[in-house]
From TrEMBL:
Keywords: DNA-binding, Pyridoxal phosphate, Transcription, Transcription regulation. The lineage of its organism: Bacteria, Bacillati, Actinomycetota, Actinomycetes, Kitasatosporales. PROSITE patterns: HTH_GNTR. This is Putative GntR-family transcriptional regulator. InterPro entries: Aminotransferase_I/II_large (IPR004839), HTH_trans_reg/aminotransferase (IPR051446), PyrdxlP-dep_Trfase (IPR015424), PyrdxlP-dep_Trfase_major (IPR015421), Tscrpt_reg_HTH_GntR (IPR000524), WH-like_DNA-bd_sf (IPR036388), WH_DNA-bd_sf (IPR036390). The keyword Magnesium does not apply. The keyword tRNA-binding does not apply. Pfam families: Aminotran_1_2, GntR. Gene3D superfamilies: Type I PLP-dependent aspartate aminotransferase-like (Major domain) (3.40.640.10), Winged helix-like DNA-binding domain superfamily/Winged helix DNA-binding domain (1.10.10.10). GO terms for molecular function: DNA binding; DNA-binding transcription factor activity; pyridoxal phosphate binding.
Amino acid sequence: MGDVSMTDVRMTDVRISAEQLVRVVGEWRRPGTPLVAALAEAVRDAVLDGRLRTGGRLPAERRLAAALGVSRGTLTAALTTLRDGGWVHTRHGSASTVRLPPAAAARIAPLSATGEAGAMDLRQAVPAAPRAAYQAAMLRAAERADPVLAQAGEPGPGLPELRSLIARRHTDEGLPTRPEQILVTSGARAALALLVAHLRPRVAAVEIPTYFGALPLLRGAGARLTGCRVTGDGWDLDQLDDAFRAARGGLAYLVPDFQNPTGALMTPRTRRAVAESAARHRVTVVADETMRDLDLREGAESGAAPPRIRRALLIGSAAKTVWGGLRIGWIRGPAGLIGELCRDPLCPPLAAAPMQQLVAAELLGDPMPVLLRRRAELRRQRDHLAGLLAGDDRWSFTVPPGGLALWLRLAGARADAVAARARALGVEVSPGPGFAADRTLTQYLRLPYTPPPSALDRVAAVLDAAYGP
């Protein structure tokens, strides 16, 4: 799957009227901000959230200036700013068209995490879509959608093509899997929600810290939570066995591959210990593999994939490797359990849309072009942020072998206080208690390294100011 040029996938022949643009940008004037800057920013924001379609042709400048209530000089200057940034393209003798700049299209982080669209929001450690590859996949999926569109579109276990593709991937990594052992869902959280609702555990063992989205799902199902400690250096095996003992007959939710948020990678010895403890205490292990592909170790491309926990139910997702907006997740388990899940009343509402599955099949059929680039950029950005923060007595961290974030331990400061001061300086970060089932970890912060190096410079500067001397 190669990249395509932006002109291959850009929308064309869309006219934007002056009245429509005025309606789209809304109340764009801001006290204390020059008109040119405020208008340019309003147009950028409208492009980013989809209110203004890329490829749309703008009306004549005189007509647009009158509709906006500004001088033509002001409008011309705003368009020049947008043109210089790649947001507007003008050919001599033709109308100007709205575009998404190549830098925005190719970014590893959404604009909300870079500060280019205002405050920098790092509370979600998420990548942006690989725009050109994604749009090309949508076009290919649309071209061969006739068989899918001829069906009723009712939810099911997933398109046979996608189930086979996911099963083959597990098999290629040393875990023989048949398509009937795969259930496709609308994301990893949907997969976990379905499993929890079906298994109804009274007690669930979780890592401390863990993925914050899992905690409300488990609590909402009535499960009592018991925790085991994880740091950037790994899992506490004594606490893990204690947690499994407390969860006897219940469920354990683990993220063994580049754990969220610590980035830790579970060793083969720990995986064996997990399997033995689960068998001893009759605990069903749910292993979340959402981060599995984000292996940032040198030589990861040629090395073997990490081993899996024996007899664990596996959850996968395209959210981190492709894009969170591609609502595709899956469960890998025994065929009998997959059949039971398909008959669960919650399965249809949590199923993935057929057209999204077609797009996923296009992207996951040959994921390496996107994945190799993503790994290279994340590795570079991880090392950049780690270099900025290293050697400072005010905090400590372990450079993670994969994942999306640094897990920072503050020395002598509360994370919520530092996060509040960082917010006042325009950067939103997540303090540790949100990742802890027992609301501990008050001295920890999660710092995603998904933004580009220039934005990470700002993150480090804000952290420095927010912590204080």
